[in-house]
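QA checklist item 7 of 12: single-chain prediction sanity check.
[x] sequence parsed
[x] length recorded as 474
[x] structure emitted
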Amino acid sequence: MKDLVGQKSGAGNIAAQPIHDTSRPSVKFEDLPLDVLYTIVSKLPPKEFARTSVLSGKWRCVSSVCPRLTFDDVEECKCSRGGLHQHTMAFIHETNAILQKHRGKVVETLEVRVYFADSLVRHLNNWVDFAVASQTKNLNLNLKPEWLWRNINNDRYVLPLEQFDNGSISRLQHMQLCFVSLKPPSQFKGFPNLRKLHISLLHVSRKDLEHMLSHCRSLVWLHIERCHLYDYLILDSPLSNLLYLRIEYCILTRLKFHAMNLATFQYEGDFIPIDLSHSLKLHSANIQFTKVDFQHVVLSLLSGLPNVQNLTFHIWWPHLEKQWLWETSLKLSCLRNLQLLLILPAHVENVLYLVSFLRATPFIENLEFHFSSYTLWLADGGPRRQDIGQCNKYNYLKNICVTGFKGARGQVELILHVVENAPALEAISVNTKQLASKEFWPYGKNGPPFEQAKRIATTALGVALPKGVKLCVI
């Protein structure tokens, strides 16, 4: 009987409790895992970062051993009402105060983004010394010139490589240097374990840059931006781990890398000979040139990127001439997907001469033409496809995409040439409005004749296309 009463009493106690507890559990920031707290703290501006120590004992612990320190004065300066000098001095004071709290601690990442001035040199040297002492693996010195248009002549911060010992050099894995001068000592042997490097506005000699990069044997990712060597850049030493390479707006005369496993290559700037012939696994290349002779560039690509599988080729103001490559034995035999983006202020009547490139792509499967030029609209000049003689077949071509179609004879003749020599073609799309870049329309209120261009494409392809090939014209 007592047992029965006890069971009823227990049941009654259970029933007295609310079935659904609507109150939310009290979760405080300090209850979060340490790695989450580290991430939150590392995103804070210097002032807020310094204030975290008053929140709780655990926050003080986090702020003292945070593996990532980020100091971004450029972003804060945008919101500041004071002068640049006054703001920079306050930034220096706050940064030094925070670094002092982390003396003797391990800091894996140190990032500094600030407008450069001569008054910063001593402090930057101290911050680099802090990175060395803190066993930093990721170092980002993203310095900004006060006046961008003067950056070529401005004195840059000289990275004190003499402060790095063998241990600190070996620990570095990621590094970004912007607006820095590099003058390595004679015994300097590069960064053997560096995996990711981004250099921008770097002042360095060709010899020193080649020497440094050739000893970065662990490099996986490399971005070189606005580094003007006025000379060639040739790395004959194998960089077998390099997978990603980007060269952007550098003044060079020639580029050569021995990177056998390179998968992605990007280049923007003036035309230079590019040699990646050792890159046997080059999956994709995105190349942008300005004001070039088209056939000359194509011949350079055939010898420099023979193994590329996917190519995006963006050319501003190409000079197209009737200089066929019929006799060359060079082919892009690995190429499967090709995008040609062309900005054509002149020579619109010579669009058909793009065929000289297509002849070197025997195994292409997907082809895209992206045009931009208001002078192309309904242009009636130029050669016809019958004038170029017998051509090889594009036996593997399945899909064609054309944007920026303006009803020009050269565009029509080019498309018909490809269609008539592509027995495996499955689909083709033609877009009259989508452009390779923004385009100026100088003819007043009357807009471009989109409908007329659509009719031209529909009529020409309606006759030429075999049955079963899908056609979309918009």
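[x] summary fact logged: The longest strand covers residues 109-115.
[ ] second reviewer sign-off
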